């Protein structure tokens, strides 16, 4: 099954409440996916780059990380440790050196970007959200996922959202049937995935199209032609929020829009606490149709 | 009028209260408050009962309904009135996928839009949709009537048996074996009656009728080489 939620704020006054609203939406979708949960949140932009990393042994791996990375990158680096995750902030030009350094240390990179941070772990959505203090986080938009594993193992790496380029991420409900052949096609272009997960292939496909010059809207259109299987995708970019369902559209999806926000969920239940939902325009996204908002 | 508040009551308790009242056959009336998109609200009612749900529901609302009248003052999730036997279910808002699926009787009245697979495998139910319906509606429908005031999506009536489909608006495409058929006086009379019953703002003459061309009923020997 899996449960997806997404919230894109059109106005700034709800920004401090983004994490709180998304957490409630995510917890409501627990029954759709109790295996793991994750959230990508587009918070305040840093002056440089933010790299979110994960470790199964944070006490060991994150000790002295700030000094180690500062030395490796030759610039001042700040590290904020949040449970099994750490957010590394550094000047933009240090990105490549830092990525090499964190990977050399065996840390898993969850996401990279100016504003995006990704937190995901195995466990119930309420526990995952509490562990990372998602409720306290502000921001402009975010997407979340509760996973019922079908195509690959229940691991932190297999949890959604998947990020395959800076400030881009994707969550998925469904299963892709041509992910192995697409993975090979992408590899030929030099685009490599880190897991055996079908969703990561969807994310990598979109990122590679954007890297080739397509707009996010065009990249999402491309999924309808090039990806086979069942999918509802919700994607985030630095300034945008997109939704697409496959032509069969058997995976549930519902959207709501007010003057203040656009919300997406697998079920209406996730909207019940949103402000002004009674007066919102609520509709089901059409199959094989791309929906997209940008600020 | 009894009020059952879902913020104070577990779903199982709510449904057993309604089911017991339906069995008592005293034609009781209930208001359900705070449904907040919950699943399986007012299912398995087996008797004359009037239930009004004050808000939107999730999956499988009013499933397996028999004799009861259920009104949803909001929208419903997938599978509303699935396998309904008799009675009437009214949705003031929109209905999600497979509304009225496998329904064997009764009337499902959707005042908004219904999405994909509306009336899939229907077996005797009447469904009236005041708005539009999505793709693959009435797939393998066997008996009953689907009346749509708005438009229909792709592949309407794919692999259709004997259900009758009436659409006032545009049909994006017809599914395999579904064809347009003539409107005869009995169809006009049927529409007049059901449009009146559901308060639908339309005239019978504005509809087109679709049904099975019955070509899939029997194996076509000319296709033997394809197997």
TrEMBL record, chain A:
Residues 2-295 form the Glutamine amidotransferase type-2 domain. This is Glutamine amidotransferase family protein. Transmembrane segments: none annotated. PROSITE patterns: GATASE_TYPE_2 (PS51278). SUPFAM superfamilies: N-terminal nucleophile aminohydrolases (Ntn hydrolases) (SSF56235). Keywords: Glutamine amidotransferase, Transferase. InterPro entries: GATase_2_dom, Ntn_hydrolases_N. PANTHER family: AMIDOPHOSPHORIBOSYLTRANSFERASE. Pfam families: GATase_6 (PF13522). Signal peptide: none annotated. The keyword Iron-sulfur does not apply. Gene3D superfamilies: Glutamine Phosphoribosylpyrophosphate, subunit 1, domain 1 (3.60.20.10).
């Amino acid at each position: 099954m899996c449960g997806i939620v997404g919230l894109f704020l059109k106005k700034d006054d709800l920004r401090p409440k983004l994490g709180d609203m998304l957490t409630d939406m995510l917890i409501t979708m627990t029954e759709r996916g109790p295996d793991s949960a994750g959230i990508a949140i587009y918070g305040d932009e840093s002056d440089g780059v933010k790299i979110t990393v994960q470790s199964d042994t944070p006490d060991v791996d994150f000790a002295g990380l700030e000094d180690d990375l500062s030395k490796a990158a030759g610039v001042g680096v700040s590290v904020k440790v949040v449970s099994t995750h750490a957010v590394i902030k550094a000047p933009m030009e240090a990105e490549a050196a830092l990525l090499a350094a964190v990977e050399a240390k065996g840390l898993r990179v969850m996401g990279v970007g100016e504003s995006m941070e990704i937190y995901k772990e195995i466990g119930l959505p309420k526990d995952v959200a509490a562990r990372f203090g998602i409720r306290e986080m502000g921001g402009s938009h975010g997407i979340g996922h509760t996973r019922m594993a079908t195509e690959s193992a229940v691991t932190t790496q297999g949890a959604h959202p998947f990020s395959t380029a800076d400030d881009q991420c994707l969550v998925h409900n469904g299963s892709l049937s041509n992910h192995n052949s697409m993975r090979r096609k992408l590899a030929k272009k030099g685009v490599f995935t880190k897991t055996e997960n079908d969703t990561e292939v969807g994310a990598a496909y979109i990122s590679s199209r954007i890297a080739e010059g397509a707009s996010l809207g065009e990249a999402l259109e491309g999924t309808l032609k090039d990806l086979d299987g069942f999918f509802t995708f919700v994607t985030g970019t630095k300034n945008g929020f997109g939704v697409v369902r496959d032509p069969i559209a058997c995976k549930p999806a519902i959207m709501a829009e007010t003057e203040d926000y656009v919300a997406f969920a697998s079920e209406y239940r996730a909207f019940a606490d949103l402000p002004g939902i009674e007066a919102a325009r609520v509709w089901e996204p059409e199959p094989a149709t791309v929906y997209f908002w940008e600020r | 009028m009894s009020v059952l508040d879902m913020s104070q009551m577990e779903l199982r308790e709510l449904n057993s209260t309604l089911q017991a009242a339906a069995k008592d056959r005293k034609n009781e009336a209930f208001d359900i408050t705070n449904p907040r998109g919950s699943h399986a609200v007012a299912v398995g009612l087996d008797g004359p009962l009037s239930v009004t749900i004050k808000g939107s529901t999730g999956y499988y609302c009013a499933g397996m309904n028999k004799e009861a009248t259920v009104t949803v003052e909001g929208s419903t999730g997938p599978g509303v009135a699935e396998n309904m036997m008799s009675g009437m279910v009214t949705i003031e808002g929109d209905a999600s996928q497979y509304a009225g699926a496998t329904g064997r009787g009764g009337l499902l009245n959707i005042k908004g839009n219904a999405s994909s697979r509306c009336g899939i495998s229907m077996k005797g139910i009447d469904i009236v949709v005041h708005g539009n319906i999505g793709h693959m509606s009435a797939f393998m429908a066997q008996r009953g009537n689907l009346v749509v005031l708005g438009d229909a999506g792709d592949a309407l009536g794919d692999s259709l048996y004997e259900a009758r489909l009436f659409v006032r608006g545009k049909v994006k495409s017809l599914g395999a074996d579904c064809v347009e058929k003539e409107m005869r006086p009995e169809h006009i009379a049927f529409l007049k009656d059901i449009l009146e019953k559901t308060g639908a703002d339309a005239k019978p003459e504005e509809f087109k009728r679709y049904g099975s061309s019955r070509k899939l009923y029997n194996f076509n020997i000319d296709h033997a080489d394809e197997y």
